[in-house]
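Table S2 (text version). Query chain:
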Amino acid sequence: MKYIPRQLEKEMRRATGAFPAVLVTGARRTGKTTLLRRLFPKAAYCLLENPDMLGRFRSDPQTFLDELGTPAILDEIQHAPEILNYVRARIDEHPHLCGRWFLTGSQEAPLMRGVTESMAGRAAVFQLMPLSSEETSKVTLFSGGFPEVLARPSSSGLWFRSYLQTYLERDVRSISSIRSLPTFRRFLALLASRTGQWVNRTDLAAPLGVSIPTISEWLNILEITQQIILVPPFYENFGKRLVKSPKLYFTDSGLACHLLGIETATQLKKSPFMGPLFEGFVASEILKHQINGGKERMLYTFRDREGLEVDFCIPLGDKRIALIEAKAGGTLFPRMVDSLLRLNKAMRGREARCLLVYNLGKRMPDSSAIAPGVKAVPVGRFLQEVFGG
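Corresponding structure-token output:
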């Protein structure tokens, strides 16, 4: 598959004119290295995961960096976090020289501690997620957005199995001293079966025989390594008693399908998980749009104690908000937007944009048949309706 331009490129190019260093974090295999080497083809390249490179650096850091020169790409810096101290010192020698250092790393939490301590004010930090449907039409609910899966869809099952093994053995073990990787692997499968549900740590702990604090730790690991999305509840009360638990989704729908044993797009259509997976796909596309555009992550869900529930709430500024329901079923009915209308009515003083996002292939009635004030849009077009452009 040919290189697919990433939406993050514009913001990254802009950062090279304002910061000495640029750091790209993200889950494994999202395309961080490809992106940097494509944007900055003249930069020297060093893969710190390579034992020879790592050995040369640690035997004589200063000479190693002298010979490397700048601009330089330092790939997978979590394997040598101490390199940040040397890069910082060189930046401080010439603080006005921008766009000299390009860094990548697969694990956000350890990296961010190092950046906070060593590179504050010196590095622009970006997060690269899997490809979005705005970047390529190859992204689907079944495939997800990992570049290598899209390049070789017939080998997706093998790729996801290998990805999980690498993730478990490297990322998870480097962040936490998990005693039983098989149990953690079962935890991943259990989470996939709970996609689109409100997080209940007690219900997750019981079938695995682990403690609630362990579940909280594992959820944190999955979130900081960007495997899952925990959508927090909307923070405004509107006079209602709100449910405070977050809602759970997987960042990549293709990985979620693999964990659920869904092997084809046809199986997905018949699966009872079709609806929750579609919700998660919508959530992920919203976050990709925000992050790729250099915007703040602002995605919430809503549920009160009386049962009023709306899938997603997106503050848009100036007292404006988008309210979204995601439906993957075969036909749309007016009752599907009752919750949107009820919550919109409760939001006095706000201008709400109410959208019913539906899967491609639905039998779509006229918008007027849904409800006044609610627009039904296909998943391929909903981001433009929410954010404009």
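Notes on Table S2: The two ends are 28 Å apart (CA to CA). The domain at 133-389 is CATH 1.10.10.10 (Arc Repressor Mutant, subunit A).
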